[in-house]
Specification:
By secondary structure, the chain is α+β, with helices and mostly antiparallel strands. The chain is 36% helix and 32% strand.
């Protein structure tokens, strides 16, 4: 699972300089916006590893489900709920697609002034 966790964490790390790192451990990586809405930072994303899987939580999807337009059926199969993906093995093609999705979500929140 370490390889999966590391690959997914790198997707979020690409945006780290514009966000606040809340937690960065061997099993959890958590980012919030630096700007606050209603006095609280906005949750951006998190990668969390367990023995069986690694979860990639990406909150921009919760507010902007249209970001999923054009997403492959294979990546959508990994979804749990509105904004979380689960992986149990390294899947470079899906991780590349997830990186593109994360970039679109980041740019969307940036345009909205949240980031």
């Amino acid at each position: 699972m370490n390889e999966v966790f590391s690959a997914l964490r790198e997707i979020l790390r690409e945006h780290e300089s514009s966000l606040e790192v809340v937690k960065d451990t061997e099993v959890e990586y958590y980012l919030n916006s630096q700007l606050k809405e209603n006095g609280k930072p906005v949750f951006f994303g998190m990668v969390k590893g367990t023995k069986a899987k690694v979860s990639f939580h990406f909150m921009p999807l919760y507010f902007h489900p249209e970001l999923l337009d054009g997403t492959s059926a294979d990546l959508k199969k990994r979804m749990q709920g509105k904004s979380c993906f689960h992986f149990s093995k390294f899947e470079i093609d899906l991780f590349d697609e997830l990186r593109q999705l994360a970039n679109r979500g980041f740019e969307t929140l940036k345009r909205e002034g949240i980031i």
